[in-house]
Amino acid sequence: MSSILAIDGLSKHFGGQPALTAIELAVEQGEFIALLGPSGCGKTTLLRCIAGFLAPEAGTIRLAGEDVTRLPPYRRPLNTVFQNYALFPHMSVAENVGYGPRRQGVAKDETVKRTVEALELVGLAGFGARLPAQLSGGQQQRVALARAIVNRPKLLLLDEPLSALDLKLRKKVQGELKQIQHRLGIAFLFVTHDQEEALTMADRIVLMNRGRIEQIGRGQDIYAQPATRFAADFIGDANLLVVERRGDGSFALLDGAITLPVANAPQGELTGVLRPEDILVTAEPVPGRLALPAVVSEIVHVGSHASVALAISGTTLAARLAPSALAGLSVGRPVLANIRLADLRLVPGDA
Fold first, then answer.
1. From the candidate CATH numbers 3.50.90.10, 2.40.50.100, 3.30.420.40, 3.40.50.300, the one assigned to the domain spanning 237-348
2. pLDDT at 1 over 70
3. Would you state the pLDDT for residue 25?
4. Which of 105, 134, 277, 337 is 20 to 30 A off residue 113, Cα-Cα?
């Protein structure tokens, strides 16, 4: 499988401060890639460099094997769907969608054909005569998508295009967008700060932090095997534990309540990572697990589950329990937090 997008050593500065540092990334044809990270991590800057709206100081960007690093946006075989959709309010839906082919000099009949096909693809057949103001937010988002795909780009860039939608509509459009991407068979590069959105939609996640790529992989792999403390903390919920190196080569956590004889551990500061769902809260020890004495300090009901705060050796751990597992639990009650040492990971970074 050949890379539709290949980025090598890309760097960008603003006011002397690094915004992107030595970015390396390859996107394959047909992949759905999420650029994920907190505000200011560089994900939108990277997207704008790929689109041609920003010029990097170093590195190269190749699209379908062609070096486009210094090409203007209109000469790159890609399109961008922006956060605000940028629809022309005085044009009909069909005129908005057909604007790109018209600008490229495509014949009128071909433009009409492409416009009809694009609107059918996004589920808006019959909406061509309406104005953008006559559409819902979700429909406007799909018009923006149709306008982007009507030019048949090799790569589609999406800059947080769902952020203006309410939660229920956002989830609905997420599924629609993924289905459209599968039917088109082209690569999508999707910017988001929402981890759930990235986990739901992306084939692979590019996790960014402070202008660098922290980790690349499938969402479930980053969740199960975070490469750094930041990755463990940003993807999903995690208990982050202070790790003490001992002279005999072992590691102590929770003031010595847990000891790990880990071979080939990374050098430098380490953090212990334990996911809330990996903690069983019981009155009696669970065979095959380490039972840690704890006291329930808080119970918060969150719909399908409850978050239970446990005080252990001066540290508070969060456990995620099903409602059926809450019977008999109350704040102040002594319990046992049962964990498997195999579920506890040590990652680089100071807790």
1. 2.40.50.100
2. no
3. 97
4. 134
Whether pLDDT at 221 is above 90:
yes
- Which is more confident, 168 or 198? 198
Q: From the CB of residue 109, how many other CB atoms can be counted at a distance below 10 Å?
A: 8
Can you tell me whether residue 161 is helix, strand or coil? Answer: coil
How large is the average pLDDT for residues 95-107? Answer: 90
Helix, strand counts (H, E) of the chain: 8, 20
CATH of domain 3-229: 3.40.50.300
List, in order, residues 6 or more apart from 339 with CB less than 8 Å away. Answer: 258, 274, 278, 279, 280, 289, 290, 292
* Other CB atoms within 10 A of residue 179 CB: 12
Integer-rounded Cα Rg, in Å, for the chain is 25
Q: Where are the domains of the chain?
A: 3-229, 237-348
Q: Are the C-beta atoms of residues 17 and 173 closer than 8 Å to each other?
A: no
